[in-house]
Amino acid sequence: MRESFLARISAEIPSRETHSAQFIRSSRAASLPIRTTIPLIFRRESLHMQGSPDSNVTQSDIAVQSTIENLESTFRDLQHQVESLQRLASLGTVCAMVAHEFNNVLTPIITYSQYALQDGQPDMLRGALDKTLKNARRLSILCGKILGLATPDQMGPVPAPLAPLINDALACLGRDLSKDSITVDLDVPEGLSARAHAASLQQVLFNLILNARQAMLDRPGRLTISARPLDDGRVVIHVTDTGCGIKPEHLGRIFQPFFSTKVHENQPDRGGIGLGLHVCKRLMADQEGDISVESKPGVGTTFTLTLPSA
Fold first, then answer.
1. How many domains is the chain built from?
2. Which of 98, 181, 225, 286 could form a disulfide with 220 if both were Cys (CB 3.0 to 4.6 A apart)?
3. Which CATH number characterizes residue 170's domain?
4. Parallel, antiparallel, or unpaired for β 158-161 and 193-196?
């Protein structure tokens, strides 16, 4: 019986090349985390063998199970690393915007300070210090929000007020969207909360807002973020843009890893590596939520997030 079981396990475990190909195909065909069936098969058969009178589990059997469990653990670690890398990649995408905004804040500080030093009058020096303090605080707040987005979420699901999370996600862009001819409309009731990983939800919102901005850069647009409670005890968030939209043939693939329709390789604030929406899907699933999309080319796109109510 043990020999037939090991033969079955050997047949279930593909070669390195085959497994790699299957891994890529399955990861592109599904937007949820990839799970192999081998560990489940092994454990079910292993438990059956241990419970039967003629079971004869050897050290070799135990070693195979230990190896599979180690592979599962390694795969989970890799998934977390992908989430962290995608978060940093999104911040890298906006670094050109943030640098521009920093320059806009620092330039008047430098100019005003130079003029005050040349003038030498106490009132002028005080004015220069006041302006420096005001702008330095503005930069400090921006840096704090960006660092918060870059920090992995260490807390479990908690009641998360949605209005502050959405405002923080917008602030992480480091740019007033009106400078891009984009109007922002927020329709989020005060006090409305969802049960979520706060940092993870902020990362999802930041990615959707970043995508919406990129879709509207070539035209005046409108970004609308709304939220409301549902009758089934959940909360829904809509993120809608009036950008270029998504082609119907692409809608079924946008949550797949490494799929991207962005081709602005020479413009850092418009590019993408195709991991953002895939990670968003995973992050929403990890907090018992969901994300879906509706889009019409030339009209715009709406992403819908659903989460348990707090």
1. 1
2. 181
3. 3.30.565.10
4. antiparallel
Classify residue 90: in a domain, yes or no: no
Q: d(Cα 281, Cα 284) in Å, to the nearest integer?
A: 5
Q: pLDDT (tens digit, 9 = 90+) per residue, 36-54?
A: 334 444 444 444 444 444 4
Q: Does 304 fall in a domain?
A: yes
What digits encode the pLDDT tens for the residues 219-277? Answer: 899 999 999 999 999 999 999 999 999 999 998 888 887 777 765 545 555 555 667 78
Name the residue range of residue 304's domain: 156-308
Q: How many CB atoms lie within 10 A of CB 71?
A: 13
Dig out the tokens for 4 from the structure.
């037939």
Beta carbons of 238 and 205 less than 8 angstroms apart: no
User: Does residue 272 lie in a domain region?
Assistant: yes
CA–CA separation, 88 vs 73, rounded Å?
A: 23
73: in domain = no
- Kindly report the backbone phi and psi dihedral angles of residue 158, in degrees, each rounded to the nearest multiple of 5, phi listed first: -140, 160
Alpha carbons 141 and 150: distance in angstroms, whole number: 14
DSSP 266: T
For 9-34, the pLDDT digits (tens) are: 444 444 434 443 443 344 433 333 43
Q: What is the rounded CA–CA span in Å between residue 158 and residue 155?
A: 8
